[in-house]
Amino acid sequence: MRILLLVTAFNGLSQRVWCALREAGHDVGVQLATTPAEMIEAVRKIDPELILCPFLKHRVPAEVWKNRRTVIIHPGPVGDRGPSSLDWAVAEGARTWGVTALQAIEEMDAGPIWATRTFPLPAAPPRKSSLYNGPVADAALECVLEVVRKAADTGFTPVPADHAPTEAPGARFRPEMTQADRAFDWSDTTDKILRRVRAADGSPGVRTELAGLPVFAYDAVPGLARAGKPGVLLSRRQGAVLVGTGDGSLWFGHLRAAEANHGRAGLKLPATTLLGARLRGVPHSPLPVGAEPESVAAYRQVRYRRTGRIGWLAFDFYNGAMAPGHCRRLLAGLRHAAAQDTEVLVLRGGTDAFSNGIHLNVIEASPDPAGSAWANIRAINNVCREIITCARQVVVAAYAGSAGAGGVMLGLGADIVAARAGIVLNPYYDMGLYGSELHTFTLPRRVGAETAQRLVDDKLPVSADRAATIGLVDEVGPRHPEAYAEWLTTLAERESDPRQARRRRQEKARRLASERVPLEVYEARELAEMSRDLFGDRSGFAAARHAFVTKTRPAVTPERLLTSPTAVTRIAPVIPVVRPAVPLSA
User: Fold this and answer.
1) Each residue of 518-553: b (16+ CB within 10 Å) or e?
2) Are 323 and 435 members of one domain?
């Protein structure tokens, strides 16, 4: 079937839908919701049999939905309507939520229903972004696949909205949530503030004030239930600040300046980076007094634990962005883990994101963006090198969440790459950068030189299942996070057999020793190219970075998204990826 995805952005959900439909054999194109005229023209040119809108914040032009089957994927159950569905669900503590596929009509979210799914929500408030990328995305994909099946049935008629049963209590029309609806007082309970902030994470955040600065708050984690004046900064750790509440405290990992006259307005940054000199006198807390190292209250972005012959190194960086400080902490964790007498080292990223590479917001906020980016890429390369050269343990890179750019390349030097079903990998650089992370060494050795080049050049997402067929990942585990954790434990236990582990380590040591070109040469070549991008801006990194961090809508839909490309095939020979160099003066 010829299908067009009409989307506000080609984000994680729309990429996942694109991958699934394409792998099912459909001809899938993508059109960004730029202007009504461009949407109408794209529909005319592509002539789709079905239009799906898995992530659309804009109204579909009447000329489109009146003449084409157009189905909206709404992040709410039957009966729910409005632009802030997930915000209200988290803020009000809904215990059941859902997704509905409904036909576009003049009235928003009120069309006939094609498919619907419901799912339970936890009692503890989830981050809105985690909810969207987890249960909502899973339910949305099920709805999409059902819609496509029904669209092939000429006898199918969608159910009128007023005839469909409401499966989630309280589902109704609600207006867009405002900052007044989100507001809290620092004397409120920790639970109340946490729910308000998580209902706005990662957009738009909740407006408040810290250290005299108006900010939008994100990335909240409960701290210790100890006395502290509400609203006062109690301590700082790993880029986060601890703030007193009415009955305890909350860590805030990221903030955004709320006033336009602030030099870093509009940039979501690590809290300590944004507050800067306002933190004078706020103590640095290596580990909060009274907190167990493994407790959430300890606010540790990198955690190590050991179970028998297996070492587990978990890291979870907000949105998968890794500034130099994140890289240094992860590198220290890797070196600590590699020094233990374990057989297997499992490197597991967060469920929301494994990694998305260097921290573009921190780079943009720097007085010297080029120098900041250079330091960032050098720091993340150190992590990649540690993974590639680790020969004391069998290294398993566990991609529990999606990854992009250098974040995909980060774990490719592991002995085993284990992905969770349903994640999406974007193994390319689309920011005016050549890219480093030693990808010219690791990527061709996994997928072959020709496929490596195509992945980098085509700039298209790859599903976990597709990644496994081309060798980008070795094994794919269950989608449910708890089931994936159990599966990963079984995999690690299998690899921890001393004899098998020793064979793997010896084979790896032989491979590294037999390399004709030293690893340092690959990095030197990549950094030479990166220097031209960073300091010469040969490919427009500065403008692309600024557009990304300020969420500037693209003027046109990239040509590569308009039609389905030819499938990538695996090629066996392994040679370095070498792209043409461009003079610094270019």
Assistant:
1) ebeebbebbbebbbbbbeebbbebbebbeeebeeee
2) yes
Cα distance between residue 474 and residue 471, in whole Å: 6
Residue 229: count other Cβ atoms within 10 Å of its Cβ. 12
Does the pLDDT value for residue 339 go beyond 70? yes
For the residues 430-446, what does the mean pLDDT come to? 97
What is d(CA 231, CA 170) in angstroms, rounded to the nearest whole number? 33
Q: What angle is formed at CA 484 by the lines to CA 383 and CA 387, rounded to 5 degrees?
A: 15
Strands of 394-399's sheet in order across: 302-307, 310-315, 344-348, 394-399, 416-420, 475-477
The answer to whether position 332 is within a domain reads yes
Q: What are the tens digits of pLDDT across the range 265-297?
A: 789 999 999 999 999 999 988 654 444 544 555
pLDDT tens per residue across span 481-505: 999 999 999 999 999 999 999 999 9
> Can you give the CATH number for the domain in which 478 is found?
3.90.226.10
194 and 145 fall within a common domain: no
265 vs 180 pLDDT, higher one: 180
Rounded Cα distance, 417 and 423, in Å: 13
pLDDT at residue 192 is higher than 90? yes
Can you give the CATH number for the domain in which 209 is found?
Answer: 3.10.25.10
pTM of the model: 0.92
Q: Is residue 514 part of a domain?
A: yes
- So what's the pLDDT on residue 296? 53
Order across the sheet with 424-426: list the strands: 353-355, 402-404, 424-426, 462-463
**What is the number of structural domains in the chain?**
3
Could you please report the per-residue DSSP string of 11-64?
-HHHHHHHHHHHHTT-EEEEEE---HHHHHHHHHHH--SEEEESS--SPPPHHH
99 is in which domain, residue-wise? Answer: 2-163
CA 264 from chain center: how many Å?
Answer: 23
Element (H, E) at 279: none
Cis ω before 371 (30° cut-off from 0) = no
HSE-up of 485 (CA within 13 Å, CB side)? 7
